[in-house]
């Protein structure tokens, strides 16, 4: 590395060789060891600007902003059961209700009239076999 | 969006943010909070230094995260590092605002940013930070962008080049010119 290259790197990346691109650091260190007075003068001058730049306060995020951004994220999607993948929502619910009601009627005819098609549909819908259906 | 040199083989597998993105795509509340905690300060710092306006920087941060939520389910491993993508998104939002400012300033010349307090006034007030902010604000946008990315965001030159869509040599040139201009503007501070 030449002195001009060393100067150019300091002009671009500042007075800390550790913050220069990794692939030039070794050569820069070598030049600094060979020409310490030159390197010291260049790095000192560049470091003065680094120090000035660091006087700019860091941006700090308020808790309110953090909460607002978190709240802006979409909620978890509702898990879908196997039946909803097969049929549109309305038809699915109706079929589930009819199927469940029919099963109950077959087993307990005496209580068939008391079975709520709506509750049965919910029971079917609550079956968690979502692992069988891939997420789309 | 063209990332230019951003696409590098083998980057995706080491991207520390991808696992969080996958969980966010599933609506994982803990992952959402973790990503915001990890990235908000960086996005806010970037926007504040580009815009020199805390309120606008907050707006940019909020908008950037809205885009993250939209992007998470579509994120494709290996195309770019998430941090690089997020910087690009935030910078684009900053540039939208800088453009709007210029349009307004064209109609209203007395509010030119050059009317900001000169560095020596700020120094007299012992407000070095304000002097640096004013000096940064006076830089051409691309020079300021290069300095913000490399000095404040601590991106390497390759990643800064990827974010900016230019070569590493161009980044170095922008950095050199930007720092030279800052040294001149902040001469009282830098030379003492």
Summarize the entry for a quick read.
The complex is a heterodimer of chains A (136) and B (192). Chain A is mainly alpha-helical and 136 residues long.
Question: Key features?
Answer:
heterodimer, A: 136 residues, mainly alpha, 7 helices, B: mainly alpha, globular
Task: Describe this structure as you would to a colleague.
The complex is a heterodimer of chains A (136) and B (192). Chain A is mainly alpha-helical. Chain A has a domain at 3-56. Helices cover 63% and strands 0% of the residues of chain A. Chain A has seven helices and no strands. In chain A, α1 (3-13) packs parallel to α3 and α2 (22-34) packs across α3 (36-54). The longest helix of chain A is centred in the first third of the chain and has 19 residues, at 36-54. Chain B starts with 17 loop residues before the first helix and ends with a helix. Chain B is 70% helix and 0% strand. Chain B is globular. Chain B has ten helices and no strands. Chain B is mainly α. Chain B has helices spanning 18-25, 29-51, 54-71, 82-107, 119-124, 128-138, 141-152, 157-164, 168-185, 187-190.
Count of beta strands of chain A: 0
Low-confidence stretches of chain A: 103-136
Mean of pLDDT of chain B: 85
**Count of distinct strands of chain B:** 0
- Give the distance, in angstroms, between the N- and C-terminal Cα atoms of chain A: 56 Å
Order of helices and strands of chain A: HHHHHHH
The proportion of residues forming helix of chain A, as a percent range, comes to 55-70%
Radius of gyration of chain B, Cα only, in angstroms? 18 Å
Oligomer: heterodimer
Secondary-structure-derived class of chain A: mainly alpha
Beta-strand content estimate of chain B = under 5%
| Chain pair with largest interface | A-B, 32 and 50 residues
Summarize the main sheet of chain B.
none
Structural shape of chain B: globular
Shape designation of chain A: elongated
Biggest sheet statistics of chain A: none
Taking pLDDT < 50 over at least 5 consecutive residues as the criterion, the unreliable ranges of chain B are 1-12
From the alpha carbons, calculate the radius of gyration of chain A and give it in angstroms.
36 Å
Count of separate DSSP helical elements of chain B: 10
């Amino acid at each position: 590395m030449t002195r001009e290259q060393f100067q150019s790197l300091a002009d671009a990346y500042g007075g800390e060789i550790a913050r220069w691109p990794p692939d030039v650091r070794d050569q820069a260190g070598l030049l600094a060891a060979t020409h310490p007075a030159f390197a010291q003068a260049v790095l000192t001058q560049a470091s003065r600007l680094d120090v000035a730049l660091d006087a700019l306060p860091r941006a700090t995020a308020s808790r309110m902003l953090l909460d607002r951004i978190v709240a802006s994220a979409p909620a978890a999607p509702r898990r879908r059961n196997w039946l909803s993948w097969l049929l549109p929502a309305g038809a699915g619910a109706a079929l589930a209700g009819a199927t469940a009601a029919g099963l109950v009627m077959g087993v307990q005819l005496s209580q068939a009239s008391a079975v709520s098609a709506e509750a049965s549909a919910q029971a079917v819908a609550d079956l968690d076999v979502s692992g069988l259906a891939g997420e789309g | 969006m063209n990332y230019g040199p951003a696409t590098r083989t083998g980057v995706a597998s080491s991207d520390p943010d991808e696992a969080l993105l996958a969980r966010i795509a599933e609506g994982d509340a803990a992952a959402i909070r973790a990503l915001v905690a990890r990235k908000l300060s960086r996005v806010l710092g970037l926007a504040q230094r580009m815009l020199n306006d805390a309120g606008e920087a907050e707006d940019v941060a909020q908008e950037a995260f809205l885009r993250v939520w939209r992007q998470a389910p579509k994120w494709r491993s290996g195309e770019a590092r998430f941090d690089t993508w997020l910087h690009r998104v935030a910078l684009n939002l900053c540039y939208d605002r800088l453009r709007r400012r210029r349009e307004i300033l064209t109609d209203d010349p007395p509010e030119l940013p050059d009317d900001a307090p000169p560095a020596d006034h700020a120094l007299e007030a012992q407000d070095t930070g304000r002097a640096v902010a004013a000096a940064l604000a006076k830089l051409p946008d691309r020079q300021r962008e290069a300095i913000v990315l490399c000095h404040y965001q601590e991106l390497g030159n390759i990643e800064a080049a990827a974010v900016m869509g230019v070569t590493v040599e161009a980044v170095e040139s922008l950095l050199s010119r930007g720092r030279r201009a800052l040294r001149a503007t902040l001469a009282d501070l830098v030379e003492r």
